[in-house]
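All the exercises in this workshop are built on plain-text protein records. A record pairs a protein's sequence with a compact description of its fold. The structure tokens are whole numbers drawn from a learned vocabulary of backbone shapes. Once this layout is familiar, the rest of the handout is easier to follow. An example says more than a description, so a record of this kind follows.
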Amino acid sequence: MNAKKTGKRLLSAALCSLLVLSGCSGSNEPASSAPESAPAASSAPASSAAAQSAPASSGDAREKVGDTYVTGLPVTDEVTTFTVAVSKHTFDKTKTMNEKAAFIQAEADTNIHIDWIEVLQGSGDEKVNIMLATDPPDAFIGLLNENMMAKNTSQFVDLSEEGLLETFAPHIVEQYNSELPEAWDMLKFPPDGKIYSLMTGMQTNYENDGEGIQFINKVWLDKLGLSIPKTTEEYYNVLKAFKEKDPNGNGAADEIPITFCQEDWCSHITEFSGPWGITGYYKIENGQFIPTVDKQEYRDFLTFYHQLAVEGLLDVEGFSQTSQQYFSKQKERLVGTFNGWVPSGTMDDETAAEYVVLPPMSAPGMEGKQVKIGRLNKPRGNRLGFAITTACPNKEALLRWWDYLSSSTEMKYIVRYGEEGTLWETRDDGKVYRKTPQNLTEDFTMENMKYTYGMVDGCPLINLSEIEIKDAEKDPGSLERDRYVDQVKDFFPKEFLPIRFVDSQKASERAFIETELNAYLEQFIANSIVSGIDDASWEAHLQQLQAYDLAGWAQWYQDFIDGKF
């Protein structure tokens, strides 16, 4: 469907949805620093041909299960309402998800209306746990983590029930079987191998391989006659010059040499630990799970950043500032270096053009051992992306709604980015191409546009064959992030945790240790950088790690790697 046709259809759909709503009938992931988990082998449900959509007509003789049509559209004769809890990105400027093109079109075509429970990014875990304990919605999109699912499987619909997916989600079954048959095993929950969720997002995505990337203001470097630092000593000298020599030229000592933001997923303070061979609380070498938080290299990392804090070179507000405050400092041309996705995502094009990638530097004694958080060909699909709860009064209808959103590449991209023609387009070769929009402003950036018009990684799984193509000739801006990843990919670790779910008992064992351990480590890192660390406080830290069972935590993951459960 081309852009003009899509636009006309959505306008018509919007008008239709306003008319039918008047007669609406009601019915009812580990912390970022903690290890990722989850593929095993493959045994998929038997494939079935995708149901052909057939329009409703007078005297409609289509097969029904209860109030739900098995094939064709609409899914139900009357408008049926469900509640769906969803993660809402801070860049999203809609008042409600129902302003998005995908859901206007979906409601008009399916007769399914969604009352959204929108949970702002960064505040989801507590709210989801409360919902599960008190009043679950009919479904969740993008809010669940493995521990939540493992502890609450009884509250979710078993999608592996014989015939359920084949009958009410045939498009999804066909796509998984043909392009990602291992998905069925990746989705199974032990001990009985039931499936409680379906995948969202991209199967893989090169631009995401690099996670947060560090950028530095090249204009400031040039003005001060400095080069991009390659060691932490050179880095210190650069930051000191940024602080003292007025590189933004406004006559005020308002420069922030380095800032970060614990609230923003790719801007944590530990993103800066690569020079010491650290990418988080652990590393894997030769199949061995090795904690890093009790090693001398970790202490050296904390000591270095404490020195920066003491001298006013590190913005210690990063431990408490919001994402919006963090982005605001970047927009105001105050920041020398920071970690993020792309500079153009948070500032105007002129300001963004001043920044270049700062590749991982080396710390003393760590020459050639520096690393960067990331993974080549990183698996991207969120295996807990969409899940229906047992509170849902009509799981078949809600499942057919999700299958409708999954029914074509075009529909998936409308969910992902909004209507065709703004952020994406289909060309004569049938492939989807990224499209860079015009007339972006400081208050409505590319990132604002993506999350306002679409759901981005909240969309149904986009398979490898459907992944958007970035055209260097017609759309050079779409390759911006890939170029940044190119500059850091050689520093990614080489070994990673397997991808599979674990049973509730093992998940609880991990969570029991990890919840308090992670909370302690976050506080310890902040205190060490702000207040400093000496021999006595380091020794106290090692004793605390014993008390929080660091050894038991490491053994859990070693057993997981070794396939003992």
